[in-house]
Structures are given as C-alpha cells and as structure tokens.
Task: structure prediction
Amino acid sequence: MLQITCPWCGPRDETEFSYGGEAHIVRPNEPDALTDEQWADYLFMRTNPRGRHLEQWVHSAGCRRWFNVERDTVSYRIGAVYRPGEAPPERKQ
Amino acid sequence: MMDRYSIFSLVRNAVSHHEKWQAAWRSPEPRRKYDVIIVGGGGHGLATAYYLAKEHGITNVAVLEKGWIGGGNTGRNTTIVRSNYLWDEAAHLYEKSLKLWEGLSRDLNYNVMFSPRGVLNLGHTLQDMRDIARRVNANRLNGIDGEVLTAAQVKAMVPIINTSPAARYPILGASLQRRGGVARHDAVAWGFARGADARGVDIVQNCEVTGIRRDGGHVTGVETTRGFISARKIGVVTAGNSSVLAAMAGLRFPIESHPLQAFVSEPVKPVLHTVVMSNAVHGYISQSDKGDLVVGAGIDAYTGYGQRGSFPVIEHAVQAILELFPLFSRVRMNRQWGGIVDVCPDACPIIGLTPVKGLYFNCGWGTGGFKATPGSGWVFAHTIAQDRPHRLNAPFSLERFATGHLVDEHGAAGVAH
Result:
C-alpha cells in the first residue's frame, strides 16, 4: 500500500485518497476556437509515462483537498508532494 | 518442417521417453529486413503474425518480444472468454473472436483447452437486472447467445453460491452466456507461436524495441536491443506499454496504464464448473482444470507499470468472492500477480492505422483483452495486410476520440471494472 503525505494532514494510507489522473492539464480558455483534434487531445490524450509522473490526488477520507504528487510509475516511489498552484519539482537527473 | 501433434506422435514420443519432441518454434537470429514487424510477442501479436501468414500469405514477418513468449499479460489474466457486449460494434468484434475460439485447437493443431463452460454475470439490484435484460436482448438481436436467469436458476446451476435474500448484496439473477468459458492462456500463446513459426514467421525473444525510425512520415524500421531492423510495415501490440511505444513515434494516445491483479488458490477438488462474475460486489472467479480457484480483482486507481498491485484491491476482491461463496473462506491462496492493462476512456480497444504511414497499433484492450486474442489478431492482420481496417475493427479507430464516436462499454458489457 502506498503511504501518501497529504500537504495539509501529513502521511496517511493510500485508502484515504482518490486518484485524479495526470496533473497540469489546463482547460482551454476558448474551447470554441479548438479543432476536434485539439479538443480530443485536451479531453482524452494522456502522456501516461513509464517513470516520472505528475498526478493529482484528493484526500477524500480526510481534508478532501486536492494536491499534486510526483510519483515514479515503475517503482511507485513518491518523490514529492506539492499544493495546487505550486510549480512541480525540478526533474532529477 | 513442423511435426503435427496427434495420437500417433504422442505414442511415438512416449516410446522415446519424450526426449525427442521437436521444439515448438525456432529461435532464429533476427534478419536485418522484414516485410512486416510485429512488436510484442503476446497472444495478440502472435495471433496477428499467424493470420498474416495464414490469411494473407505474408510470411516474411518478425515478432519481436522484449521478454519471453507468454510472459506478459497473456500469462497474467484470468482466461475468461465471452462475447456478451452491449453495443453492436463491440459485440461483432468479440463474437468474431469467440467463433475463432470454437475452432482454434483444430486450426492450430494445438490444444488451447477452450472450455465453453458458461459465463454468469450476476445482478444484485433491480437496475442490474434491467441492464442484464437489455444486454441479453441486444446480444440475441446480434445473434449472440444469452439467457436471463432468476436467482433460483443461478442456485440450481451453482449450488455453492449464496443466494440468501439476507445477504448484504443479494443475488437477484444473472445473465448466462453458455458459449463463453475459459481457455488455457499459455497454450494460446504457444499455439499461435508454433503456428506462425511453421508458416515462416521469425519469433525473436529477448529483443526490446527502443525506437521507431521514420522517414518523411513513413516508418522505416525499429531500433532494438539487437540492432536496427527495417520494415515498411510495423504493427505494435504491446498492451500496457502502448503509450511508451506511441511516444517513440511522436504520438499521444488516450490510454492510461494500470496494474490489474489476479490470484489463484491451492488446488481443490472440482467445486465450481462455470465462470461467475459480479460487477456490483466486483469479483470474478472460475476453477481451472488443475483445480485452483482463479480470482480476478480490479485495477488500481492509479497508473503504474510495476506489474504488481496494491493490497487494498486484493482485500476488496476477496471480500466480494466471500460474499458470493462463503465456503471459500478457508481456502488458502497460492499466488498473486499483476499485469499492466492499457485502459481507454470508452473501455474499447484501438485497432487501426496511425498518422504515421506503415505504423499500425492494436491496443487499449484494458482489462478484457484475452478473450479477444484470436479475433484481435485476425482483424489486425487484415488491417496491416490491406492498409485499411476490416469492417469489424473500423469503428475502433484512433480518430473516434476526435469525432466523438466512442463505443462506451464501461459497465454495459458486464465488464467487471
């Protein structure tokens, strides 16, 4: 089981959280100006990387607030946790 | 020349103490050039190569597998085969596959142990039962067998199931597809590998593709851990790693990879002769011919490539199974494992052309790809050979995410995830 550190509540078990998918996908400001392909890219296409992933979690059974996590999708190791609006951590080489 | 398996070959090899069986397939060094390269030596990739050779006469083909044959999801699933999908597009595709299953052992001269022992999808609420009636009616209109059973009929068929009205999630009935069942997963990979090899296909194991080379929008070959291999047509069938392969060609796919778990018990005497699935309590179970209970769990909510799952998911699946079969509470579990499934937003696969010419993808089967193995290979071989999709897989193009013509099979198909 993952142990995730909620930036507001501290470390808790995975079962307290819900997953929110890839982070930093910004809703287009002018959807009408988009082609179908651009809209599909926003709506459906995902980077789904093997390795470092920036993703959203919500502390559903706790403070119910959203935050971002940097996690490795192979080792499942969590590298960093940061609040919405904060910049993602620099990529470690 | 491949020896045919028969009662005579069995006797002949018994006399020589089974020490002279021919290898089921060769392990050739990859050549530098092929007409078609299939990336991924799982069931779908091998089936693609087999049907390319058998149906389209294209035999200058290599199947490149980074690990070993049957070591990925083909050997990690719960082997359930059925075709009771709600929407016409999906129903036709899976029914094509089921029809191929029915003749597969004879076609391959390899016993894939396809056992049409019936698949029950349980209903636990009134809405479940309405959905089941709708799905069974849709199936029958598409010429696919299906029946709606009452709780008493379910109990008569599976006496060990708990149909007590006092259960937390009482069983109200089920859908039954009698032609559905299970098959031996390894044998499917081995049978297709042997069949493809016999027709001249090179199966190259321990050969990982690390890059897809292109020139002017057309593929020219693949970089591998065993050097560059050129081909004008490349079919990628890599399940959980599809996004990684797509990125090599500069493509983005609507796929997320998740761990999906299963586990088996110690072998026990025959106790469950059919497949039982439940969406509401979320578990599915069958008993293998060896006697072990094969239990499928759900996917982890988060994405991952780690080929292992989290413990809360196991606990959830066990709870579901014990809800249905209280007598299994003291069965000991033997092994547990995870595979990486490539999940599409509409729970349907992507099989077809890509913006890169000569590059074809067959992916996004998510949690239910095993049942589709022969049909998937059959339509993908057609797609590669003709450079256009077959009528059966035309609805499953990558473009559907831009046009909006999704085939939403989440839940609708009795998909237990």
The mean pLDDT of chain B is 95.
